[in-house]
Design brief:
Rossmann fold; two-stranded parallel sheet; seven-stranded mixed sheet; about 240 residues
Amino acid sequence: MKLQYLADARDAFKWDLLQWVCTRSSPTFSSLFFVPLLTPPKKENEGRIPHHRFACREVIRPFVDSLKTEPRALERISTLGTAEPTRSFQVSVFAPERFIRAGVSRVDYWEGFDSGKLVNSVVFFDPDIGFETKTGNGPNWIRHSELKGFFARLPKTSVAVVYQHRPRRKWEEVFTELEQKIDYAHSATIAFEPNLAFVALSGNQATGQRVAAAITKYAEEHSIVRCHQLRRPDFP
């Protein structure tokens, strides 16, 4: 359950990158739609790393610190949209109190989710582990069949971003496997560091270029982060 991780190192990277993509893309995105894909809690302190271990921008640090305030609540994430008052955008959280279930049993989780209405948005899917694998039919993954359906209805002015935790394999192997499975996207750009990756899926050339340029610049300004073009948009 990600409520316990709201202010750790993985989240410093996550919120810093998402705020950057929303505000530094050209043109900018007007909203962030956060899909938390919550799972029930396991061990209380499992995997928690202090957020100061990731060198996010100082403008984002107060926001990350605020997420540690008790009682923790996903709705507090809406303040990310005003972390930089001169670069504001709207933030919405989907199903903040609903747990996702395994496989086809999760249909009820998506009740009320209409990706077709998310115009000029960054739609962020945050599964515990990332994209499904050969054995990933449990609640910790997001399924390609789900993403394909949502992506088909997503306006071309919007981008879907998916969290991916690195399994016990090299990133190169993970990316090669993903490239074979995300044929439903026109292009894909990845921001990654040793343990985490964020995969940005675009539906046309214009949005692909828009997002790729922003992520490339983000990687240039964060020494630990690298950028990889999984499915490259056609640059002029």
